[in-house]
Predict the structure.
Amino acid sequence: MTSAALSLEQAPPLSVPLRFFLTAPLFGMAAAAMLLLAGPDVLLSRWSPATLALTHLFVLGVLTMVMCGALFQMLPVLVGAHVRRPRLWGGICHGLLAGGTAALAAAFLTTAPLAFRCALMLLGGGLALFVVVLGGGLLRAPRVHDSVRGMRWAAGGLAVTVGLGLALTLGHAWASLPILRVPLTDLHLSWGLLGWVALLITVVSWQVIPMFQMTPEYPRWLRRWMPAAIFALLAWFSLSAAVTWPGSSLPLAGLAAACAGYAVWTLVLLAQRRRTIGDVNLWFWRLGMAALIAAALFALAGRFGLPPAASRLALAPALLFLAGFALSVVNGMLYKIVPFLVWLHLQQRIGEHPAARGQVAPPNMRAVIREPRARAQWWLHAAGLTLLLAGLAAPVLLRPAAVVWFASFALLGYNLFTAARLYRSEAARIAACG
């Protein structure tokens, strides 16, 4: 895919996705601060208040925040679906998601039913509105291709995840409600990580990898069948959680194989890239794919009791998936998407001001976020991931890991802020030309 295949003229105002992107590092810093305060206690149990709060700060405040912002951009540009009043709906979704995430983290830490009720209203409203906007846009898509079909499956995965999450939150908000907490939590986790995060990243990669890294296209059979296969395997896994029958481990094996196969194929495509100049985006993608393969292998080994479920190493698949795969890829995509959007919107500003033509030229995309700062953030990210994984064996390393993660998110936030500041200054120069 090339930029010529995109409906660039339908791009929403830059402020719509950028508010999501700039907010994500703040929640990342909050999650790192919580890890610093909790230290080894986060490994005591998956049910500990600090662990639950930290996980949702990261998944909702960082990953989902960026993915929502990206989809507000991709719906009109990639799908061709016009979103009416994007500033209004984007602002409402952003405010509810940010407020709801903070409220949910506070609710887990305080266990106060009132806090859970606030989180339920804010997150329920924000995510439900986003699902409606996303689903409506995908259903109205004027051209239906593999990416649109894949996004529809991911939207379905998000809807299931939100429904399960709201049911669990209801159980916290009103303790008298009979909620099957353990099986619902397992399903919520599975659908959230695989049916939403992994599936959307996979679909988006079909566009951004060939476009920005100049690789061959993903094969048609993979683009056509992988989203439906993942959704079907998750549905099978959900049924197996309620009914025990022989071979109930097969859906997990299938999901692990699908994730590992996708990661291997992506690494093969990256090895065939036609770009001769490397960049930090490539580093993030390669790290993310390696972590996804490792997460799949650990998950499969865990089904055979290696390591034992009571061991701290049993958390390795989740950490590899979230911090190693999902965060690496999302972080890397920001270093391509944000400079591209800044360049695009400055080009459009010049088109709106004929007097600026020949006087002001938009900066090169590589100049929007300086490569040395982006690479420094990659090293912090890689060091934080290494310390976090090592902390499973030596919990004393978790607090140093938290410090490195805080620095990584702070530098990411600064890099994105400088891009926004550059856009404002260049847009002012263009407007001054008359």
